[in-house]
Amino acid sequence: MTKHFLSLQDFTSTELTGLVDRALELKQQRRDGVTHNRLAGRIIGLVFEKPSTRTRVSFESAMYGLGGQVIFLSARDTQLARSEPLKDMARVMSRYVDGMVVRTFGQDVVEELARFATVPVINALTDLHHPCQVLSDIMTVVEQKGAIEQLKIAWVGDGNNMANSWIQAAARFGFELALACPEGYEPNQEILGTARSQASKPITVVRDPAQAVQDAEVINVDVWASMGQEEEQQERLRTFSAYQLNDALLALAPKTVIVLHCLPAHRGEEITNEVLEAYHEVIFDQAENKMHMHKAILETLLNPQA
Ligand code: CP
Ligand code: NVA
């Protein structure tokens, strides 16, 4: 059976912890000048239907860093743009490459590709999940705080793809998660229900950002309008105005709190320039960690015996 990575539910707690440990080890090895060629002769295809800076470059540099190669395809330049069925795309790509990294709109797209692909399909962001990002964010928390299980993590803003993946992460890693979202912008209820049934600590959704950040050791924020929601931008600016991470909100959290932002950031909206710059070291470590985590994921899925 080909193993895919479409959401954090696809891996057990032990497997996810193993990926975090391995990514931290790979980061240290890169610092020490240790190189690997574990994926020499392997090729991944990146199929992206939405823009990307970090995820694309970090997957590409991860693959090159492991001795492999990549083919980047903007979906609009493929026959998908002329309605070639996903099931055909999946079977054709499987004959050419050893793995597919896909960024798209519907989760059903990555699911359909995975159903027909005979090589691993990796979710590089859908409207529903951003699992690779949240896994590298957890690596950043472990790097900063030593461990994650004992912490309260806060999410402030939209109950979007990132929020959904954080919810699944809470169930798998066993930390407390408090999300503050405006009415009508809550995370996916099915994902929330499943995660709560598996979780050992509370996963709460509240309205008040102050309540979410109280006692939190990590505060996560993300854009108010995700890719594909550009037309809602003005309305969202109004709805989310009380959800900005600024000095006043930050002051309600412990002094030891860290701020995470998966980037790109809209300064003056979900986060002030002051708060982002005050935490720039950890936020850009967070961006760097995507590459180390992608190496760990690629090693595991493309070379499980290694
Ligand atoms: N954080 C993240 O996924 O960034 P990109 O959209 O630049 O890939
Ligand atoms: N929620 C954002 C994340 C960007 C990395 C989006 O989907 O656009």
Short recap of the structure:
This protein is an alpha/beta fold and 306 residues long.
Quick tags:
Rossmann fold; 306 residues; amino acid binding; binds norvaline; 5-stranded parallel beta sheet; 4-stranded parallel beta sheet
Main structural class: alpha/beta
Question: Could you tell me the number of beta strands?
Answer: 9
Tell me the major beta sheet.
5 strands, parallel
CATH superfamily of the largest domain: Aspartate/ornithine carbamoyltransferase
First-last Cα distance: 17 Å
Query: Widest sheet: strand order?
Result: 7-6-5-8-9
CATH hierarchy, class of the largest domain: Alpha Beta
CATH topology of the largest domain: Rossmann fold
Number of domains: 2
Average pLDDT: 97
Instruction: Report strand %.
Output: 5-15%
Write out the distinct hetero groups bound to the structure.
phosphoric acid mono(formamide)ester, norvaline
Protein architecture, described:
The structure is a single chain. The model has no long low-confidence stretch (mean pLDDT 97). Helix 1 (13-31) crosses helix 12, helix 2 packs across helix 12 and helix 6 runs parallel beside helix 7 (189-198). The protein folds into two domains: 8-130 and 290-302, 3-Layer(aba) Sandwich (Rossmann fold); 133-287, Rossmann fold (3-Layer(aba) Sandwich). The protein contains twelve helices and nine strands. It is an alpha/beta fold and 306 residues long. It has a five-stranded parallel β-sheet with strand order 7-6-5-8-9. Strands 2-1-3-4 form a four-stranded parallel β-sheet, with helices on both faces. Norvaline binds next to helix 6.
